[in-house]
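Hi, here's the filled form for the chain we discussed.

Project: internal
Contact: R.S.
Residues: 390
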Amino acid sequence: MESVIDRACATALYAEGDAALDTGASLLAAAPEADAEAHRRGEEFVRRAWDRGWHPADLVRFVRHELDERRAELAATLIAAETARYAELPPRWRQQLAELPAPVPRNRPDRFRYAGDLLELYRLLLRLPAIEPVGPPPGAAADQLHRPPAADEPRMLTRIRALLAKAEATGFPEEAEALTTKAQELMARHSIDEALLAARTHSRETPGACRIGVEPPYESAKAILLDAVASANRCRAVWNDDLGFTTVVGFEPDLEAVELLFTSLLVQGTAAMTRAEAGQRAGGRKRTKTFRQAFLMGYAQRLGRRLADGAERVTAAADDADAAPAGELLPVLAARDVAVTDAAGRMFPRTTTSRVRGVTDLDGWTHGTEAADRAHTGGTPRGPEGEIRA
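And the returned structure, exactly as it came back:
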């Protein structure tokens, strides 16, 4: 015998339009005894998303973009319930679950509206495309899950986080730049140490991947900034504009560095942009959108060069120091670069490089480059354009 939830789903999920959705919601709202089964069905849809390569943060971000915050919170509620059944989860999953919106109470504000929200969410989940997997899904065998980092790694990451937190909090641009530069140097030094250790111990570690959200507005500028951070930390980045994220491929210590640094630089850049925009408004300017777009593009372009220069300096210093025998470091790093490039090529065999244009506000570009390079300039700006793999 067909259940209420079967009839509601058959009505609402496989037909277009609000009328079908309302009919399905009416069926559910009139059957309180079907509530538990309706939520189990939602958890099943979430479980299918994991099989298609999605992670919790990806799913909530996509629902928020395609529907709204209310349905995103409902998705987070289903995700929390579904993932509670696993004894062990990959570390990035645990972090993403901790950052999800709080669970929402059932049947609020009323049964009909809540049922409609559920079914509209299920309609979206049913149509999720498959995406490139980045790590094992929940429920994978224990030996597939990423193991905890080495004992000294948390101390290094804690120090880097502290530097970046200070950079975000200070009101002095020169101090923020110095703190961020020091954090990048520590990241580069840590990456070199990990690479040498892996080579000497004949580690079988291979490149992995993570996804980082690239939220609107001004997605292209943010994606260029993320690409710059990834390149400076020996990773490759591929932006998926339609789904709102960039996939970063690299070795685990470098992926952690990219996540930390990009998040901090975005906070710092947004704060600097707000200050610069306030000054422009005080001078009578009205082109806020074009100013912001140009600012973030200039900020991303200049920071990319600064980060790359900093990484090269640290590598050169390490190659000259006693940390590695003469001639050992550069071949090790080159081998890891090849491994990362090969891994990215296997994951994304059909990527394209797109040239991003459209910056029309010279003041915004100038303020953005100054925000990225307060203390001194390095080289000549390439102009208001950029390239990104997508």
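Let me know if anything looks off before we file it.
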